[in-house]
UniProtKB/TrEMBL annotation:
Keyword Disulfide bond: no
Protein name in the entry: Histidine--tRNA ligase
Gene: hisS
Organism: Halanaerobium saccharolyticum subsp. saccharolyticum DSM 6643
Chain positions recorded as L-histidine binding sites: E81, G82, T83, R112, Q126, E130, R257, Y261, Y262
Residues covered by the Aminoacyl-transfer RNA synthetases class-II family profile domain: 23-322
Amino acid sequence: MKFNAPRGTNDILPPETLKWQYIEKKTHELFSNYNYQEIRTPIFEYTELFQRGIGEVTDIVEKEMYTFEDKGNRSITLRPEGTASVIRSFLENKIYGQAQPTKYYYIGPMFRYERPQSGRFRQFHQLGVEAIASNDPALDAEIISLGIRLLQNFGLDNLEVHLNSVGCKDCRPDYVEKLKKYLIENKDQLCDNCKSRIERNPLRVLDCKNKSCKTVINDAPKITNNLCDNCAEHFEDVQNYLDVLDLEYIINPLLVRGLDYYTNTAFEIKDNALGAQDTVFGGGRYNGLAEEIGNRDLPGIGFALGIERLLLSLEAKGIELPVESGVDLYITVIGEKAKIESFKLLDKLRNEGFRTEMDYLDRGVGSQMKSADRMNAEYTIIIGEDELNNNSATIRNMKSGDEKEIQLSNLLEEMKKLVDKEAV
Ligand code: ATP
Ligand code: MG
């Protein structure tokens, strides 16, 4: 019998997990500067939440959800994204009764039944933000710049910001009619998939990657020329706020989100080095979502960033995150008595914040030293019966080879002198 992890999932092993911890730590720090607070919602929800909150005619709901019946015959779905759950929670817990806006972020696994490939998995991880209960275009700019700033903190620059407005329930229906008419006129040149989308969700045709569809799409009526006054003003304000932050963007009228509750701002941040899956994060306004799932008129905006894509982007650019594995001190022991004494010392050192290790396989001194090397130990010390009897041992700097004779009873004090604990 041999078990493999399910297709499209990954084991994240050390030292890779250090990168994840680093990303999470930086995220907590930065998001806190922007006054976003962490929210943790369940990994699964009732299926209907996603059917309504993502939309029946989306790829996610049509073909990508992990849906099953639980033992109480309820239909349950592993969350494919975070926004629907956050808004559900906001409404359920009546957060709207508190001071607004509410600014949340989340980090965690998402599940989509997709064809696994580079940058596309069935269990993947997103970190996302949602700013709820304000329609201020400054928040749209804040959210985009927050995502960019986070990536910059990891050393990622030169990402493309694609920006669009998808209008609102007042102006979009007219645009959709115009688009439909145009698509029907050019139906012959569209792929079969797009032909079937004309009636169901014509906006989705705009992001078809098919070559022949693309030619049709390029000359299609543009949503940016069909915005109502309110939406045009909002769009302009978002751009002004981005200009204030010196944040460059490309207006891309083909960038759409297909559903009625998406309004105004839509954006995607792309890294050309990533190939086909080039979007590191994307998002937009969803002023109609709370109405859809909770009959409440509440604006919102957010983004979701794929952590695996972020890591791929770093890899493509050869950027190493400043993570460090290893121990401060490895104690090499000779004999049972020394082992017991060392075990005590380890406990004391660890309690004081030193990363320390010893041998648990009864190996000889040579093998223990090899282990210390493999562990990237900064210092080693050899403790045997002689050292115990004389209260004296040699501590060795593994990099420089420098050695120093110390009193064993002073090991903790010596380590404090040798290792800058702030940097640990
Ligand atoms: P894509 O066009 O790449 O399928 P999407 O529009 O489905 O992306 P969103 O639902 O907006 O993506 O999710 C936000 C981010 O989450 C994406 O920009 C991407 O970084 C990441 N992401 C989405 N799906 C996956 C997946 N299957 N595997 C890994 N990361 C993903
Ligand atoms: Mg997708």
